[in-house]
Amino acid sequence: MIRYGVNNIKAISWITGAILVAAVFILLLHLSANNMEFSRYNTGWNGTSSFFSDLDRHRTTEITDPKNLAKHPPNSTLLIIAPQHHPTAKELAAYTAFLKEGNTIFLADDFGTGKEILTGIDSRITILPGNLSSLDRRYSDPYSVVVYRTAEKSQFILPENIALNRPAALDGGKPLMLTEVLSWIDINGDHRLNAAEDMGTFPAMAIDTRESGQIIVLSDPSIFINSMYLQEDNGNNRILIRNIVTRDNPVLIDQMNSRTAETSGLGEILHVIRTTIIIEIFIVCLLMLGIAWAWKKKTI
Amino acid sequence: MNAKIRYVLLTVLTMGILLMLAYTASSPLLYSLEWDNFPSPFHENIDQLKEQSLNSTTDLDPQLQEFIDFSGPVSLNIRIHDVEQARRDLERFGKNQGSMKNLVVKLDMNESEIQELQKNTALQKEILDSLLNTSVTLDSLQTMEIQYHDQNNEDMLTTVRLRGNELRKKVHGLNERYRNATEKVVEVSTKLGLDVTKNQESLKEVEQIVKEIEQPDTTTQLSVDTLLIPGEDRISLFVRPAAGKYREIIEYMGISLTLSGNTTLRADGKPITLYLDDVPFSTPVTDAFGYYNVKVPIDRMTAGTHTVYARSPTSRSVNRTLIAVPVESVTNLSLSKPAPDGTVNCTGFVLANYPVRSASVQIIWDQTHIIVTKTDTNGFYMREIPLPPGRHTLVAGFSGDGYPINSSESQPRIVDISLIQGVETDYGQLMAAIAALGICIIFIGAAVFYLRRMSQRKTPLSDIFRNIKEDPELRQNSSDLEIPGPNHENQDDSSKEAREEALIAYYTRILKEQGLSAASRIAYQHLSGRIAHDLHINRHTSLTAREMSRNCKRRSYCGAFGRFVSAYERIRYGGQVSVKEQAVLETALSITDDQIRGEQH
């Protein structure tokens, strides 16, 4: 018969504690993640957790209020990824002032409210309705369009081509990246080329100069999602993103309108805790109190 | 459940969790990308797409069908002299031809049947193009021939006839070439499973067109443009169609000729100015044959009849009439949520048969204030309007002035501007703040509760003696033990002495009456109670004597107490009731008692 002494009981207590900690950790990880489109807290295929995880915290600033946009260092680049809210007058004014100071706005959007932002800041670029489709594709879907660099110069070094995922087409501005001629706008959404849909080259990335700043529009925010960002065969996409976010100039990430800021449930609470200093201090105090309590219990 | 089984299960669970953590440590994704299959309106799951084969050839079928079908309507339109439709179809045919050419290169199908199809449809397109141009030129020549005939202008008449004969000779043999190309197209298309009906029908049309060109119907009478202004230099103008709606395309075309002696010269590269109601609106240039052609949409002009004419540097055409047909319009207005300063963003559009560009839109609020803005190239407009606090009604209107478009007005929109300026109620943030506040309150309450409970649990000395009192074994002798009250700390030294003396006497009496084991227990309970009180140890009665001894630290009496506990355990639990053990116990008791007293002093 095996005897379970004090030492055995101690070991079991440690193991039980470790299991409980692991379980709590996994539970928190599970509850703090979500499956919302483009959300930075979404670790699934349609989230942008990997992109945000790779950002340099020292050079990247999140913009959650239009007032903060005015506090940026000069020659900055503002990334607006998948905007979903209708821009307010204050936001539009902040964007316009930002451009006036010679900065750059990089807007990645297809079917969100990017068109309203472009109109609001008087850009000549507009996003056309309908899925851009092509026979020149990366995967077995006409919406996985490959677009090619043009001779037009931009401040970002562009790779020779990038793969897009359900992009729109652009109109206006100077095209930086174009589809091959075997492309069309799938107006009726049947994934096929029909008689009413003309073939041709369509811009998917364009540049426009406004005041002394620049507006660069990419008609597909999906290049930032995990499944596109992590794919080995989409290396050029990562080169483009790296060239945008790792330049010497500061990078600002718009979190006012972007779907990337979307949270839900416990994730939202954790987000509030992380972004509210008072609550964060309170939680730290609470943890210290808990540790002190546990220590006291141990000594008894 | 058996303890063994419980521990095995615990071990298995532990190992499982540790393995899972190790597996996900490098890439902490709990959800596999491959298994996450829900559809998204924004993008496709690449991991799913990668599992499907890349086969774009099925996409070609509609394109190929459309491609081979072009020859049918084009030939028919040439045949019925619908030149404009034929030109438009040919233009689209040309675009698709370019796409097909690239497609063949892209798919590396140079030796394939598609390449054969592409080559022969290109030939079909070339022949149709040639037939269309010939047909149009012959029509123009025929018009001119009749006109010059009426004017008895023999020189021009001869020139026009010679040119016509040249063109007729050129179409000879085209039908044979077209037949060969069509047969090959039909052969390949049938193999690919495409419908060749329209392409085959085009063959009959082409044969008929060639026949009509080679043997013109002498009875055909074309309307004579008798309005050409007489003179040496002449310019004609045709407007097609003669009526249109907003932004519909109107084609203006004609020919400019210069008579120099006996020679008729075509005005090559001459600028022609087109006038609408005496206002110039376009300046095309003639080509090598003296023709000019320009397409201009109906834009800013009032509805009704307008006069159009063309001018070359030396001549003027007759007046033509263009009718702008009025269309209905719709004006839309949307309001944003008011900003904290009361500013409202007004957006909307003006739409007729097409979006109305650069149109003036009046936004009227409360029927008293009028603000004018303009639509962009897509018919959209946006304007921020600062409004005072209160309820306001806004209406957007398009007057239609200067456009062939009727006026329209939006539905009235009502907006409430809060009296408290600068305060915007964000319910999401408010709820988050309330939740955060609630969490804070709950935790503060819990902390306060805990602290109060802790302070209540500081064991007063009275509790220690109460424990002894409540022990049924000892209760009968409780009268011998002096139990201090809650304010024992304020008691004077004499009462403490009395209490301490009472312990020894009590121990002695119990020793006599019940033996060493019971007496040692009384002594232990008394000492442990005092030590627990001194060291602030909660629930000391639930601790064993050894645990009590282990928790006794940083006090001078702890050593003696340890020896007392060892003797106590030997007597109480080991059954070693002997004089020697009694001496050891009583010595340790005495020293501990003295040292506790010393510490307290």
Would you kindly provide a written description of the structure presented here, covering whatever features stand out?
The complex is a heterodimer of chains A (300) and B (601). With 300 residues, chain A is an alpha/beta fold. Chain A is 35% helix and 20% strand. Chain A has 9 helices and 14 strands. Chain B has 601 residues and is of the alpha+beta class. Chain B folds into 4 domains: 57-214; 233-324, Sandwich (Immunoglobulin-like), CATH 2.60.40.10; 330-417, Immunoglobulins (Immunoglobulin-like), CATH 2.60.40.10; 458-600, no CATH class. In chain B, 49% of the residues lie in helices and 17% in strands. Chain B has helices at 3-24, 46-50, 60-69, 71-79, 83-106, 113-150, 154-170, 174-191, 197-214, 427-457, 461-470, 472-475, 493-514, 516-535, 545-551, 558-572, 579-600; strands at 233-235, 238-240, 243-244, 249-260, 263-266, 273-276, 279-282, 291-297, 304-311, 320-324, 330-331, 334-335, 343-351, 360-365, 369-374, 380-386, 390-398, 408-409, 413-417. In chain B, strands 1, 2, 4, 5 and 8 form a 5-stranded antiparallel β-sheet that branches. In chain B, strand 6 (273-276) and strand 7 form a beta hairpin. At the A-B interface, helix 1, helix 5, strand 11, helix 6 and helix 8 of A face helix 1, helix 2, helix 3, helix 5 and strand 13 of B.
